[in-house]
Amino acid sequence: MESFRRAAVCGVVSLCLLLGDCANKGYVEFQAYNSSFDLQYQQADRVLSSLAIAERKVYKKANPNNVNVFDPNKAGYYLDTIEPPITTSLRKSLLAVKAYNAVLMSLANGEAADAYTAKVGSAITDTAAAIAAAAVAVQGQDDAKAAEKFMHQVGGNLAKAMPGLKAASRVRGQQAFRTLLDQTHGRMDDALNTLIQGTPDFYRLFVAARAKTGGGAKTDVSFTPDDLAVLEKEQTEMAGWVLMLKAARAALNAAADAAASRTDVTDITALAGTASDVRVLAEQLKAARLSQGGKQ
Q: Quick check: helix, strand or coil at residue 50?
C-alpha cells in the first residue's frame, strides 16, 4: 500500500515537472513544503485546542478569580470561549507563516504579491501584539513564563523577514519568487525551529494543569491513572506536531536549495517520499487518537 502511495505521488510530481508552469526552479519543492505545512497546521490546531484549556487551568490555579477586581491585561483568561494569551500568540505565529507561504505561491504563479504581502505584514504585526500581550498576562506565572519566552524569539524571527517581504510587494513573477525565498526562508525556518525547541515548555503547561495545587507540576508517582492517560494523549499529539514541523522545515529548505540552484536535479523519489511520509504520519496519528478514544 505504501509503495503504491509513493508511486502515485511520484507520478504527480513527475507530471508537474514536465509542465511549463512547474519549470520554475523550486516551485515543485515549495508546493511540497506548502502541503507539508498545511498538514502540520492541522496537527497544531489539535495541540493548540488542548493547550488553551491547559493554559487557562494553570492560570486559574495560580490566580483564583476575585470578582471584586478586573485586570484588562488578563481578559484572555476570563473567557472560556477564546484562546488565552500564550496559545493565541502561538496560533498567530503559525498563521503568519501561512500568510508568508501564500505570498511565495502567488509569486511562483506569476501574480503580483502586494495584496498578500500586506496580509503577511498584518499577520506579523498581530503576532507581535499577541506576544506582547502574553508577556504582560503571564507575569507571576512560573509555569507559563518559559513558554512565553520562546514566543518572543519566534516573533523576532518573523519580524526579520519583513524587509524582504516589503521588497516583494513591488515585483512579480518567478524570479521574484526565487529571490524572496532565498532572502527570507532562513527567518521562517528559524521561527519553526524555535517552536520545536519550545515544545518542552509548552508541554509543561499540560503537566502543570494536572497538578492538584498551584505552583508547579506533580511528580510522576502522584499522578492518578486518569492524569497519566490524559498526559499520554497530549504527549502523542505534541510528538506528532514536532515531527510534522521537522518535515515542514526539511521541505522548506529543499525548496530554497532548489530555487537557488544548489541542487541541479529534483530528486523526485525523495520529494514524493517526503510528501507521502507526512501523510502517513497524519494517518498514524489519527489511528492513535482513535485507539485512545479521542476524536479524529
A: helix
State phi, psi for 112 to the nearest 5 degrees: -75, 145
pLDDT single digits (tens) 240-282: 999 999 999 999 999 999 888 654 444 545 545 555 566 666 7
Give the separation between CA 94 and CA 230, rounded to whole angstroms: 25
Q: What is the pTM of this model?
A: 0.80
Q: What whole-number distance in Å separates Cα of residue 13 and Cα of residue 60?
A: 50
Strand runs labelled E in the chain: none
Question: Which ranges of 65-113 would DSSP assign to H, the alpha helix?
Answer: 75-78, 85-108
Cell of 27: 516551485
- Of all residues in the chain, what percent carry a pLDDT higher than 90? 33
Burial class of residue 16, CB neighbours in 10 A (0-12, 13-18, 19+): middle
Instruction: Work out the angle at residue 222's Cα, subtended by the Cα atoms of residues 216 and 226, and round it to the nearest 5 degrees.
Output: 100
Q: How far is the CA of 82 from the CAs of 10, 49, 178, 270, 286, in angstroms? A: 42, 10, 39, 41, 25
Give the residue among 284, 259, 262, 287 at the shortest CA–CA distance from 33. Answer: 259
CB 136: neighbour CB atoms within 10 A?
A: 13
| Size of the chain, expressed as the number of residues it contains | 296
Going from the C-alpha of 20 to that of each of 25, 44, 71, the distances in angstroms are: 11, 34, 58
Other C-beta atoms lying within 10 Å of the C-beta of residue 240: 22
User: What phi and psi values does residue 215 have, to the nearest 5 degrees?
Assistant: 100, 15
Quote the CA–CA distance of 100 and 165 in Å, as a whole number.
8
